[in-house]
Backbone:
């Protein structure tokens, strides 16, 4: 009886597989297009509707996929957490994230990342070209602080431009590191310096050099990349960044041991907790957040807890840690470089804590690997 059920289920799955794959990649391209539009000077009036469309497309892919009983239970568990977050805060991207990651079942990770890389690169170059020709977007802004004219090259803000440059660089290294030699890393470092001069994006260039250095060390240091300690150290860095963020959020404005060093954070601490009603200060955090928690600020981990709630943020960080450790099992040392770089960047910038799933490449790894990370052996319980 069970064998017959598995046989008919497999036939049903085989018929739906192409439709599910098509829906997934269409949804992914739309997510990337939304990211590019967000970086442009265009105000997208259909953004909410497009997010609903991508949610439906990823939902169709989920329905067309085959999961074990244990995997369905994990999807349900994460769905409940995300659903409670949505009901408490009104932020539907938590539910979209769960469906997006679950829909990665049987999707080729490298293929999805390559698609994202080339579509995002083409979109960003198009925005730069339009701004340079004076057709659309601004080439520069006048900084309200003391940094004068800063170039954004049509991407809205210099930090946003440099962030996209860094993210594409990190992703490009992951995808093509086997072809890269030391001069390639040197060329990327020189390009990073040349782009820093007009953008003056200090956080961006620091993370870029960390990514280049970490990637080069692991590429040419075989013994180091095979050591479990490098993975533990990277996970420790993530937990340290998250822990420091929580500690910083415990203090009132202009107080606490970190405030004297806020100039090294380029004022991010002050700008976070001097917002109306205290902004991201920990007294505003809730188990599943609340509708009032809508303020924008940097300090990504603080925003993660503030926007989505303590429990959803803790669940996300637990999955992030598990994904970093999964890199060791798969011997994917360059995946560790990318995940660690994103983790460090998120402490000071909230670029990847947003409604835009298509620009956080760490989610791709989490989605592609989650079944093996949390659900174990599929063969015994697959239906």
Residues:
């Amino acid at each position: 009886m069970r064998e017959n059920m598995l046989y008919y289920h497999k036939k049903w799955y085989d018929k739906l597989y192409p439709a599910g794959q098509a829906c997934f990649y269409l949804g992914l391209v739309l997510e990337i297009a939304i990211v590019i539009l967000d970086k442009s000077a265009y105000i997208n009036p259909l953004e909410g509707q497009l997010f609903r469309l991508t949610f439906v497309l990823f939902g169709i892919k989920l329905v067309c996929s085959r999961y074990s009983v244990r995997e369905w239970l994990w999807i349900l568990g994460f769905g409940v957490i995300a659903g409670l977050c949505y009901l408490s805060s009104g932020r539907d991207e938590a539910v979209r994230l769960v469906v997006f990651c679950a829909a990665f079942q049987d999707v080729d990770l490298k293929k999805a990342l390559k698609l994202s890389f080339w579509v995002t690169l083409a979109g960003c170059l198009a925005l730069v070209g339009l701004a340079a020709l004076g057709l659309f977007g601004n080439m520069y802004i006048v900084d309200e602080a003391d940094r004068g004219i800063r170039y954004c090259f049509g991407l809205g803000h210099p930090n946003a431009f440099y962030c996209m440059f860094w993210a594409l660089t990190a992703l490009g290294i992951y995808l093509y590191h086997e072809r890269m030699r030391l001069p390639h890393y040197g060329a990327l470092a020189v390009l990073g310096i040349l782009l820093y001069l007009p953008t003056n994006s200090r956080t961006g260039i620091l993370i870029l050099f960390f990514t280049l250095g970490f990637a080069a060390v692991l590429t040419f240091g075989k013994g180091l990349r095979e050591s479990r300690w490098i993975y533990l150290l990277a996970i420790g860095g993530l937990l340290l960044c998250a822990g420091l963020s929580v500690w910083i959020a415990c203090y009132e404005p202009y107080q606490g041991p970190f405030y004297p060093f806020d100039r090294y954070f380029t004022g991010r601490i002050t700008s976070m907790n001097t917002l109306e009603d205290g902004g991201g200060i920990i007294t505003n955090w809730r188990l599943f957040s609340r509708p009032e928690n809508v303020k924008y600020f940097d300090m990504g981990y603080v925003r993660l807890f503030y926007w989505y709630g303590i429990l959803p943020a803790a669940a996300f960080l637990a999955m992030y840690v598990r994904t970093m450790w999964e890199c060791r099992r798969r011997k994917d040392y360059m995946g560790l470089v990318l995940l660690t770089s994103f983790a460090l960047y998120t402490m000071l910038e909230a670029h990847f804590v947003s409604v835009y799933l298509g620009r956080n490449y760490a989610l791709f790894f989490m989605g592609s690997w989650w079944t093996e990370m949390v659900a174990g052996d599929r063969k015994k319980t697959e239906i």
